[in-house]
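Form P-L/3: holo structure prediction, ligand 2'-deoxycytidine-5'-monophosphate.
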Amino acid sequence: MKIAIDGPAGAGKSTIARQVAKKLGYTYLDTGAMYRALTYTAIQRDISPSNSSALASVVSQMDLQITSDEETGGNRIFVDGEDITEAIRKPVVSGNVSEVSSHAEVRKVIVDLQKRMAEQGQVVMDGRDIGTVVMPDADWKFFLTASVSERARRRQLELSKNGHEVDLKELERQIQDRDLMDSTRAVSPLRKAEDAIHIDTTHMTIDEVVKLVLNYVQGGKSSVQSTNNHPQRHN
Ligand code: DC
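OUTPUT (holo model):
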């Protein structure tokens, strides 16, 4: 069984995907972390986020390792043996990752890697193009959204936990910029797969969203419908 969870930044994808994977005993893969790892490495090596050929060469040569973190249920990310799990969340990485991930040459290498990981099955992947490009054959596809202000509020909370204080308005602006770049890029833009289930998480708790997703998956509904869902209908 393969589960795809897509959506814009801050919609709750990684938290939900992690918990769903844990409940099902599946492997969780944070695909955004792979683009972040490349962005971090490029910054370290003074490579511009617009230099697609240099980025493509780095991504095909770097030693990227992704492991499961038992404690958090998330992934730990290593490049050339260095643990960069926390470093890839820094604002400087978030500010450049959309541009880095927009290049076709870069996406080809990373998407191929993700497809190979998907072949093993029993996987929950979150990202932007999982239901459309990486696992178009996924058994379940979810598309999570939330209002810009709610997503900025969540991101602020997350950053604050990691010791970064960022102004809310600034975060709203960054999220809008990132949404625009992610959804208008030429290669596999952020877009809901036609057969994905849309969940607006703006007024939902994490537990409610996890329950809703598990209701679908464990309820065994075979055909994936394109709908806008509310938890009350499915509890
Ligand atoms: O989910 P995230 O914020 O960590 O993702 C970081 C960036 O990576 C995001 O701006 C777009 C890009 N990304 C992508 O293009 N495709 C994916 N499957 C996952 C992330």
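COMMENT: The first strand starts at residue 2 and ends at 6.
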